[in-house]
Amino acid sequence: MAMFHAPLRRLIKLWTEVRLAEPAPLQLNPDLPTLYVLPRPALSDVLLLDAYCREHGLPPAHGKLAELSLPRCVALPARGSRLWRGRATSVAPFTQLVANGIQVQLVPVSVFWGRAPGKNFGFWHLLAADSWQLTGRVRRALSVLINGRDVELQFGAPLHLEELHNGDPSLTNRKAARLLRVHFRRVRTRVLGPDLSHRSTMIQGVVASDAVRHAIEQQVDQGMSPSRLKRRARRYGHEIAANMTYPVLRFLAGALRRLWNRLYDGVDVTGLDKVKSLAGDHTLIYVPCHRSHIDYLLLSYVLYREGLMPPHIAAGKNLNMPIVGPLLRRGGAFFLRRSFRDNRLYGAVFNEYLHRLLAGGYPMEYFIEGGRSRSGRMLSPRPGMLAMTLTSFMRCQRGDDRPMVFVPVYIGYERILENSSYQRELSGGKKRKESPLGLLRVIGRLREPYGRVAVNIGEPLPIADFLDRSAPEWRTSGADDHPWLKPTVTGLGHLLTQRINEVAALNAANLTGLALLASPYRALEHATLCDQLALLSRLARSPACAQTPSLPAESPEDCVTKAVALELVERHHHRLGDIVSATPAQAAQLAWYRNNVLHLFALPALVAFAFRSRTQRSPAELHDLLRPLWPPLAHEFCISDDADLGERIDAILTSLCDLDLLERYGASFTPKDSLAARERLQLVGRMIQPSLERNALLIEVLLHAGSGTLTRQELTERSRDLAERLGLLSGREAPEFFDPKLFETLIDTLGQEGWIWLEQQQVHFDECLRQAAQRASRLLDASLRRRLALITRYRENSDVRDRQSALNPEP
Question: What's the structural domain count of the chain?
Answer without folding.
Answer: 4
